[in-house]
Write a structure and sequence with these properties.
8 helices, mainly alpha, rod-shaped, 200 residues
């Protein structure tokens, strides 16, 4: 019975394995895109100059950090940007470009850390899946032998197998949420861009 559940679990993990084979150690259904390019989220003026010096504008950098933080609700973006634009006066457009350049760079930095974490997570899952298969094979051999009877060793293997299987399944479920995070970050940057552009 337990053996059958292991096989089912490993079959359910097959889509992640396919994603890994297509993109190295990438376990997500979503394609791995290393960096959010400005062109994919921004249709305003060129960001080249702003990207180079946004960190030198203290107030623009401070707002960029606030907007890039997922703790800041998107509903607050308009008010924060409007307040900044009003104080910026004639330099509003130039400084708002710096704000968005900062948001994009900070988000890409955070996203890179998340992508690296997902790859490490995938390697851990791969190692755990291999251990589950090994333990399952050992248990099957022990139980299928002519003089099969439960021993302390087989009980230990079975307990370890159940525990590792549980961890594997829980981590596989968590991976669905983790894989969404880079996509959510891209959507957030796009939404911030959409709110800043009309104010330039």
């Amino acid at each position: 019975m337990f053996r059958a559940s292991i096989v089912t679990m490993l079959l359910l993990a097959a889509p992640a394995a396919l994603a890994q084979s297509a993109q190295g150690d990438w376990p997500c259904v979503q394609r791995r895109i290393a960096t959010i390019s400005a062109g994919s989220v921004w249709s305003g003026p060129d960001l080249a100059a702003a990207s180079a010096d946004w960190g030198q504008d203290f107030e623009a950098a401070s707002l960029a950090r606030q907007l890039a933080s997922r703790r800041t609700p998107l509903e607050e973006v308009d008010g924060l940007v409007d307040g900044f634009a009003q104080k910026a006066g004639a330099a509003k457009s130039e400084r708002l470009l710096r704000v968005f350049a900062g948001v994009l760079e900070l988000t890409n930095t955070e996203r890179s850390r998340i992508l690296a974490g997902i790859s490490r997570y995938a390697k851990g899952q791969e190692a755990l899946a291999e251990r589950v298969r090994d333990e399952s094979d050992k248990l099957s051999l022990a139980k299928d032998s002519p003089a099969a009877e439960e021993t302390p060793q087989t009980k230990e293997i079975e307990d370890r197998l159940k525990w590792d299987t549980r961890i594997f399944q829980e981590r596989r479920q968590s991976l669905t949420y983790v894989c969404e995070t880079p996509v959510l970050l891209e959507k957030r940057v796009f939404e911030i861009a959409r709110r800043i552009q009309p104010k330039l």
